[in-house]
Amino acid sequence: MNLDFSPVFADFDALLRGAVVTIEVTAGALLLGCVMGLLVGIGRLNPQRRVIYHLCSTYLLFFRGTPLLVQLFIWFFGLPQFGVTLPAFACGVLGLGMYSGAYVSEIVRGAIQSVDRGQTEAARSLGMSSGQAMRIIILPQAVVRMIPPLGNEFIALIKNSALVSLLTIHDLMHEGQKIISVSYRSLETYLVVALIYLALTTIAMVILRKIEHHLRAGGMVQ
User: CA–CA distance from 75 to each of 9, 90, 98, 130, 159 (Å)?
Assistant: First the structure.
């Protein structure tokens, strides 16, 4: 078997442009996922607020219990049946973000619950409302504790973003498939695409480790 990478490297610029799109989709999805995760995570802290709690639990059940690919197809192919047509990029960010939010919500909930309850009681004794105690005392500590697991979620999103190529988004995977359609060098193309994904996740891991190390050095992460 002879490997020929020349057709792949001839269009390497296209792969790099696709990698940029992959980063953009991932970053947008992570931002949306953090917002949804924060709202849902806080919403599931108090079962006594039954409506909010059950809505958040239903969100969690659906987005964690169904395949990401099916969810992406619902956004891309399902919404137009209700007269709502979004660009493929928006559907990709929305699909990945809502999916990620279900996992981020558990990270948020766990981080908040890991903060000593005595700090909430101390804040209340100072005259703070529950909302003020959460915003000023609890969340800042919880956010620091969320960083390591959020980093893992970011890396998972980079890999899961390959599915958005099925929505005709010109990401790294989509550009690789275009090269294959012309050159018929599937093995070589997928190997190069895999190495680029590996480079993206490795860079992300290095950055996240530096952030975590900095926080540990400052005594902010236990």
Answer: 34, 9, 11, 36, 20
